[in-house]
Amino acid sequence: MTTALHNILVRRLHDRALAGCAQRHLRGRLLDIGCGTKPYRTLLAPLVSEHVGLDHAECTHGQEAIDLSGTAYEVPADDASFDSALCTAVLEHLEEPEAALRECHRVLKPGGAAVYSVPFIWHVHEEPRDFFRYSKYGLRYLFEKTGFEIVELEALSGFWVTFGQLLVYNAYRFHRGPLRWTGIVPLLGLAVQGGAYVLDRLDRTERWTWMYMVTARKRAA
Q1: Is residue 195 over pLDDT 80?
Q2: Which superfamily does 8-157+208-218 belong to?
């Protein structure tokens, strides 16, 4: 499989943060909400006893990894039937995020943890199903309103990574025709991402993050 270079930095930052959250909080029978192809199955395998993928019948990523056919609003499972939950870059695509969080809360056992990654500053994608962006205050409000307590709420970048990555995405609009064969755009993209990473470490202003990683827990009965 060819490694995508245009967003390699944000993917690695996301996956590194997710790996840490998973190690600390994900256990037992896990529900992967909007699982797609289950890209984190290898990461999760040593941590959970069962990795149950949930996605809808029209999923554009295929059906091979789906164990439960349903939506974030209607999980075909009993109350308190999962020890933990994972939902990566899905909440922004849901028209009714509060309803989705309440459903996650329903199927989690008391004390169970849910890990979500949610964008803040990011371009429109997978349109027309792209509805919301979330500040840390909005996330805290939504999770607490739906019965969760926030355990961790981490900004994954500062200004430089966020806008460096958006610059690279914009540059790739020109990666076509004769220019595609020169390699200029991918090389420029890697240089921008590398520089953005260094600058972000020197000057990290989290109010400009592209994404948050949230770990929330269902309160024990």
Answers
A1: yes
A2: Vaccinia Virus protein VP39 (3.40.50.150)
In this structure, what DSSP letter does residue 135 have? -
Pairing of strands 28-33, 82-88: parallel
Angle at 66 between CA 59 and CA 92, to 5 degrees: 50
Q: Tens of pLDDT along 112-149?
A: 999 999 999 999 999 999 999 999 999 999 999 999 99
Tell me the range of 57-71, 113-127, 174-188 where mean pLDDT is highest. 113-127
The C-alpha atoms of residue 101 and residue 58 are separated, in whole angstroms, by 21
Task: Spell out the residues 6+ positions from residue 62 whose beta carbon is closer than 8 angstroms to its own.
Answer: 37
The CA distances from residue 119 to 14, 50, 134, 179, 214, in Å, are 11, 27, 6, 31, 11
Cα–Cα nearest to 47, from 31, 65, 24: 24
Phi-psi region of 176 (alpha: psi -120 to 50; beta: other; left: phi over 0): beta
| Rounded CA separation 182/171 (Å) | 14
Categorize the per-residue pLDDT at 40 as very low, low, confident or very high, splitting at 50, 70 and 90: very high
Distance (Å, whole) CA 31 – CA 68: 9
Residue type, 189: G
